[in-house]
Amino acid sequence: MAGWNENQLRKYNIKLEKIPTLQYDDPKLDSHLTNNYPVLIKGSKLVSRVLKWDLDYLKQHMSSVCCNVIVSKNHKFKYYDPKKITPNMTFKPISRPSPMIFSEFADKITNWKKGDSRLYLQQVLNNTIGQHVVRDFVMFNWDWIMSKQKICKWGPLSSNLILIAQEGNVTPCHYDEQQNMFASIRGYKRFILFPPSQFECLYPHPVHHPYDRQSQVDFDNPDFTKFPKFKEACGYEVIVGPEDVLYIPMYWFHHVESLKHGGYTVSINFWFKAGSVEKIEYPLLDYQRMVIMRNVEKMLAEALHDPSEVGNMLKTIFLGRYS
Ligand SMILES: C[C@@H](CC(=O)O)C(=O)C(=O)O
Ligand SMILES: [Zn+2]
Predict the structure, then answer these.
(1) Rounded CA separation 266/163 (Å)
(2) ipTM (interface pTM)
(3) If you measure from the C-alpha of residue 257 to the centroid of ligand 1, how many angstroms do you get, rounded to a whole number?
(4) Which ligand is nearest to the CA of 267?
């Protein structure tokens, strides 16, 4: 009996396929990872030694630690890069950072009432979070995950984020430029992933926009006039439960929700830098085409010294010549 049911999932009108599930020692696993294909991995015991990381335990061992908490007026926590907000830009995000000490965060979500702002703790695991949590951190199954890092020739581990979400919280559709092994400790999260080849259906914001890497499409109320190809998007769905590990390949779009009525969720991600590509092979891989498009946008914004001119120049290049 799974610890969740279908009516805990938010309703979207998106075609959905399933993501394969494999045991951590299945010989087929490595080919999924090395081919940048998502897979749900069971039995790795990657974070089994920290299943005790619930609010009470963490309150006990990091109550006065100041954590990065995001506050949102609705259920969506759309990430933005504050460094990309320019003075003459009117940018009014729905969610914003509101650092607070852990005990305050724990109390707020414990006493949360409908209508209150929602909270999402997203804290980089480093040695500022107290020696207990650091001591637990060393008990992750590092041998296993480092063996995968080696087989896949990923770059170094760049960071672990501890994520504590209220039930129903959503991280809207976006992509990251790093490989991600995402581990669940408590509760259930639903992922909807889209391959880089569906870039045209998901309309990410321009690279120089604060919402860089985030899809412009509001899954709760898609604007099919502005984003007509979203109708063709086909997602890959998976529910990640305690001790599961989901491999999210870099440049794959993902929408993530903590199941409704499922209580708060605790997760840890393992972000690895992309490995160096020895030799570019043709035809290009879909994620490599995204990297090229990002570089074109960056180069044009740089050369024109005005990101708002990038669209016009691309239109001039394209219309009547490549169309
Ligand atoms: C923050 C996380 C999504 C979530 O768990 O809400 C994510 O996007 C990632 O690990 O790349
Ligand atoms: Zn992400």
Answers:
(1) 6
(2) 0.99
(3) 9
(4) 1
Convert the pLDDT of each residue in 49-86 to its tens digit. 999 999 999 999 999 999 999 999 999 999 999 999 99
Cα 171 to averaged position of ligand 1 atoms, centre (Å):
7
Is this prediction's pTM over 0.95? yes
CA-CA distances (angstroms) from residue 158 to 53, 136, 161, 273?
22, 19, 10, 6
- Pick the closest to residue 185 from 276, 282, 265, 98 (CA basis): 265
Q: Would the CB of 178 count as within 6 Å of ligand 1?
A: no
For ligand 1, say whether the CB of 182 is within 6 Å of any of its atoms.
yes
Measured from the Cα of 77, ligand 1's closest atom is 6
pLDDT digits (tens, 9 = 90+) for 198-254: 999 999 999 999 999 999 999 999 999 999 999 999 999 999 999 999 999 999 999
User: Does 171 sit in the ligand 1 pocket, CB within 6 Å?
Assistant: yes
Query: Residue 193 in contact with residue 235, Cβ under 8 Å?
Result: yes
Q: Does any ligand 1 atom lie closer than 6 A to the CB of residue 160?
A: no
Q: 10 Å Cβ neighbour count for 148?
A: 23
Ranges of beta strands (E only) in 125-188 are: 157-165, 170-174, 179-186
Nearest CA to ligand 1 atom 10: 269
